[in-house]
Each structure stands twice: as C-alpha cells, then as structure tokens.
Amino acid sequence: MKQDLKWWQKSIAYQVYPKSFYDSNGDGIGDLRGIIQKLDYIQELGTDLLYLNPICKSPMKDNGYDVSDYYEIDPMFGTTEDMKELIHEADKRGIHVIMDMVLNHCSDQHEWFQQVLKDPEGEYADYFFLRKGEGENPPNNWRSIFGGSAWEKIPGSEYYYLHLFTKEQVDLNWDNPRLREKMYRMMNYWLDLGVSGFRLDAITYMKKKEGLPSFPADGPDGLVSVKHGTLNQPGLEAFLKEMKEKTYGKGDYFVIGEMEDADVHSMQNFISLKNGYFSCIFEVSHLSLGRKAPNYFWFEEEEWDPDELRDQLLNSQTVLCPDMWIATFLECHDIPRAADRLLREEGKNFYGFSMLGMMYIYLWGTPFIYQGQELGMRNFAFPELKDYDDCSTHNQYELAREYGFTKAEALKIAQKGSRDNARYPMPWNSGKNGGFTEGTPWLPVNPDHKEINVEKEREDKNSLLSFYKKMVALKRSEEYSEVLATGKITPFQREQKGIFAYTRSNDSQSLRVICNNQNESCRIELPKAFRVLLNNHSCLEKKEKTIELLPYQAVLLEDL
C-alpha cells in the first residue's frame, strides 16, 4: 500500500544563488527575471522545488543575509511584481518556490536599528542586545563567527550591540514579544504572496544564554567562540513552536531549519514527520570534515579519510529514518565546491563527480542540487584578495596574517576556503562571460567555462549534466519514487575501505547504491542476484552475485 506523503517528500530541489544565476538586463548581476528565463532549464533537469538565496532589500555586506527591509525585493534583483511572476511561472511548470528567511539578525541599516542609533535607550532598544562595556572592554569575550569581538560600540554612546556575524548584521532580541509578532507578520506576508516555504537561516542562534556571560578563552586572542552562549540554547524551542503556530504551521508548507552542529539524536521535536517545528533540517555533518573544533580557522584544516564522509552521512541516516526528515546536499552557497572539497586529486573527473551525486541523491530525505553542481563546477582561485566579495574570505585572510602567515600563504588559504568558490557566475555557454551577462560580471567568471557550461553539456549524452538528469528521473519515476522516498535505509559493506553502500527497501522492492570512493578497483559480494538500473561507467564487471567496481564507479542495483 502506498503511503500518504507530503509533496516535498518526493521532491528534488534546485538551489539558486540569484546574484550569480543569470543576468537579464546586462548590469552584471543575476536577477529574478533571469531566473524566470531559465525556469525551463530547472524543469528540464527534473527538479520541482526552487530554493532562492536572499532577495530582500539589503546593503549586501553579507550578500543579502543583512536585511534592511523584509518586505521589499532588493532593486538589484527586481521588484515584488517580478517575484509574483516567478512564483506564477514556476507553478505553471510544477515547481514550488521557497526563499531564504534571515531571522536571527538584520542589517544595521534597518529602520529599527537606525532608531537605536538615534536613541540607544528608546523604544527599539529591546529589539536588539544592547549592553554597557566592562570598563574599556566589550560586555563579554565572545568572538564573532567571522572573527574579532562580537560587540560593536554605538558611536557617541556607552552601549555596545551584539553581532554574531559581521558588525553590520545586528542580532535581534527574540525574547521581545513585540519583535516576534512583527517577524511573524512579515513571514505571513511572503506566504500569502505565494512562496511554498522558507529556509530559516542561522535559526539555532536566536536564543542567547541568560546574562550573556563570558567563558574561558579558547584562542590566543583572549576570546571564545560565540557558539558557547548562543547555539541551541534552552528556550529556543519555545520560539520555534510559537513561530510555527503563527505562520507556516497553518498550511502545507516546506520549511528547512539551518541547525549548525545539530545532534541528530535529539532532533525529534525539530523534524518529526508527525509534528516537528520544521519539515526538515539540512544534513550538515559532512561540513565538519577537516575542520578543527571548536573554531574553524581556515588555516587549521586537518587531514581526513574518505570513509569519514561515509560514516558521517550514514550514521545520521540510520537515526533519522523513518520518523524524521532531512535535506541532503553536497554543495551550497557557503562552502567551496564538492569536486574540490570532497574528492582526492585522482577523483576530480566525471567519475568522481557522478559518484558523489549517486552517493547522496538516493539517501533518506529531500536532496538539494546547488546551481552548477550538475555541471561539475570547480573552485576558482581569484588572482588577488581584492577580487573577492565574500566578507569571510577577507576576515580569514586577516586572521591568517595575525597568526603569522605570509601574505602569499594567507592568500592561498583564503582562495581555498572562500565562499566565492561557489558564488561566481553560472556558465551557460562558452561565449563571453559564459553567457551569464552582457555586462561586467559582479564576480570573475571561471576561465574553464569554455569546457564546463550548460550548452555544451546539454548536447553531450555522456556529460555530467546528462547523468544528473538520469539520476533525478529515476528517483522521481513512478516505479521507484515510493521506495526511494520512504524505503528503509540500511548501510552495508561498511567494513570495506572506500565503499559507500546502502539499500533502500520496502515490502516489495530493494535497491542498492554502491559507490567506490577510491582510486583502486574493489570486488563486492552481493547476497542476491540483481539488475543494473544506473551506472556511471559504460560497463560493470560482474559474475553471478559478485561485482568489481572500477575507481570512482557507482551503481544503482535492484535485487531480483
């Protein structure tokens, strides 16, 4: 018997970074009308859920994650009418649209904070966290996510304000019921406009530890990671419960919570399929690979083994299934490209890229494809620091210099870790600027667009784009969509080095995903006869119930 599923449980999402997707008016910046013009491409890929990064009015100190007006579309992207048209045109193609919602903080240009600058003890003071300093020092020793103190002094005042990210991103005080009501009203405005849900940015930072205390320093700067007093604090769940009741809980919406450092063993209240605060959270366990806790300085990367990726993903999968939902992804706007981040040098080719796709797209949950991932877009090291727009790139460069690295070494560190690796323009063809714009692109276009672009890969049935279409089509097919949406997930061959393998099964079907994430062949014994549904190589060496996978080969098999 088929289960009664939510619409998003069978969906495959496509994430668009609007500024870099397609420029419709030649100003060098992607926009909403550009997305409208490329909706057929998104539909052609087979995806039916479009996730937009921030588009609200913003000074763009952190590319839209510093909102100055929650009700207005930033003019660089278009107008509210353009947004309405995008939602309408997407709906005609069977595509739902969700948008990024930044609730933990707003821009220092927002009218509420502008009022605070005029009067730090006035009506809007308790919309934020304002505190007097400790003598000549800030109120506590918290270090912001991007480095340096998490406090900035208000000019001409004895007050400091809290900012977990850049000083232009002022933290909102969710303990204030008046603020909460205004935020709920704003969220309902966008739901009424027609969006199908939200991705809630930095949502687990909203509740701060009572008293905002200092903690023992964890670095030579005398500061401590702000996460100690802000991440997943008691009281957060009360905010989320109220938010759901007053906004998206009233309809059939898809809402993703960005929960950094979330422990999947304690996620029942957050992402239960019965009554979670969200529809799901992003599966972020693989983001910790190579990162040295508790801080993440880009120059402190650690070596890691490919089997750690397998273990990170599969450990959480077995906990989540079947009662909780997850959003799976390889790439997003906040991390370098998966091709360079998750693969050894010998695997940075079609086989490695397609193997990574096979690895995650059939896991339990809703898979997200980030723009250009389906093309095999790579990291792109800009020649000079000034070429980078990403604020964290500049911050990490300065941190590296403070810790004794030379300018050349610090630049290399910044180039490798920069979020701009995932934000430079989408290549549509091999022409000028990759067909992204007729003007001057806001970020440099990767010179490899001559080979890696939509037009070329569309025409090549053996391209990565073509393989992604096959993966998506199979997941959404009438024959296999049920088992790939709700089938039990069971890891196997975990003792075999380099092998990432699991089954998806129900009462009538059993599928096996087997990926060889290493530069050597590997023989695998299977318990049953099988047939091949998908293979990223042109052949598969098999004998009865035994297969031998080539380096970076991935197959999807059906038990007979």
Automatic annotation (TrEMBL):
Instruction: Name its GO BP terms in alphabetical order.
Output: oligosaccharide catabolic process
Instruction: Cite the SMART domains for this sequence.
Output: Aamy (SM00642)
Entries under InterPro entries matching the protein: GH, GH13_cat_dom, Glyco_hydro_b, O16G_dom_2
Query: Where are the membrane-spanning stretches?
Result: 350-370
Identify the residues that the record assigns to the Glycosyl hydrolase family 13 catalytic domain, covering every copy: 15-423
Mention any Pfam family matching this sequence.
Alpha-amylase
UniProt entry keywords in alphabetical sequence: Glycosidase, Hydrolase, Membrane, Transmembrane, Transmembrane helix
Q: Any idea which GO molecular function terms this record carries?
A: alpha-amylase activity
Membership in a protein family: Belongs to the glycosyl hydrolase 13 family.
**What is this protein called in UniProt?**
Alpha-glucosidase
**Source organism of the structure:** Fusicatenibacter faecihominis
